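ZP: hey, is the heme C complex queued? I don't see it on the tracker
AM: it wasn't, my bad. submitting now with these inputs:
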Amino acid sequence: MKIIIFILFLLNFFSSAYADSKMELGLEVYKSKAMCGTCHILKAAESSGDIGPNLDQLKPSLNQIIYVVTNGIGVMQSWEGILTKEEIEAVAYYVFNVTNE
Ligand code: HEC
């Protein structure tokens, strides 16, 4: 029994460490690499752009964010080939988590 608890503890520890680095990468992409904040309001990232929808209010789903960042929508460009797949997933993960708490 003790060993099972220990394994669960380890799994929990590693998955949260992994999640945190994904959040960090996502924030970096949001703020620097793609500068989503020039067009979007997102309180957690202290951005106040008003060209696109307010992400705090929109509360987009994870798949919706991955889809629009990859393919673009309206005046928002596609980031395919500019951001890596990992970066697109991280920024989506970040925006999803801070807007759906
Ligand atoms: C040049 C300004 C601009 C930048 C930079 C930008 N967006 Fe957008 N975004 C928009 C506009 C405008 C829309 C609304 C487009 C429409 O509905 O026609 C939009 C829509 C969205 C939507 C909602 C899509 C939907 O299904 O309605 C999400 C989510 C989103 N953007 C996330 C992001 C993320 C994440 C980034 C950074 C990788 C980003 N945007 C960068 C302008 C921008």
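AM: back. The mean pLDDT is 93.
ZP: great, adding it to the tracker
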